[in-house]
Amino acid sequence: MNSLQIQRRGLMLVLSSPSGAGKTSISRALLDAEDNLNLSISVTTRPKRPGETEGRDYYFVDPTEFNLMVNRQELLEYAKVFGHYYGTPRSAVEDALSAGRDVLFDIDWQGTQQLAEKARDDLVSVFILPPSTAELERRLHTRAQDSEEVIGQRMARAADEITHWSEYQFVVINQDFEDSVARVRAILKSERLRRTRQVGLANFVKRLRELQ
């Protein structure tokens, strides 16, 4: 008899941050480094950006279809961000957790609150902070994806988003990218070992005691 008889339930690893603080880059590094971690693909009503692929980056739908998904309770969470809706399909996540696979979420604080209400025991939440507001603005300009007007909106929104840091289990200040990735990987490793995620552990211990 050995510990291989104990299976592990998957977890939901949530990374949130203001736009430009680094959660997407950290997410990509985690996916490259961790074999048993899959990205939750969100559904969105926003237009596809250059280089994005259907089913890899997002599932792109019109507002009518999105509303139907909400009404059919097919989304674990959803939110409106900068005029567009984003949501997490329920079935794919639940199947992954049951099979012992971990799921990574790149979502905002609104989505995290909804996930916490529905799946608190499965949730591991990490908030990524920038080292300064000046650095946050510099990163938004450097990635050159948005107009000056949108960057201004993102900076204004960041002030509100940052106030939600205390709602998360872990906080990482993304001053050095490699160090931040290492910190999040350490969180993930620890949470995978949490006693409550070890399915069948109580029966395993019971059998151990019976052999004494």
Structure description:
The chain is globular. Strand 6 and strand 7 form a beta hairpin. With 212 residues, it is of the alpha/beta class. The mean pLDDT is 89.
In short:
The protein is α/β, with parallel strands linked by helices and 212 residues long. Helices cover 43% and strands 22% of the residues.
What is the helical fraction, as a range of percent? Answer: 40-55%
Strand order of the largest sheet: 3-8-2-9-10
Q: Might you state the CATH topology name of one domain?
A: Rossmann fold
Shape verdict:
globular
Give the low-confidence spans. none
Percent in strands: 15-25%
- The chain-level mean pLDDT equals 89
Report the count of strand segments.
11
Order of helices and strands: EEHEEEHEEHEHEHHEHEH
CATH architecture of one domain: 3-Layer(aba) Sandwich
Measured distance between first and last alpha carbons: 13 Å
Which radius of gyration do the C-alpha atoms yield?
19 Å
Structural category is: alpha/beta
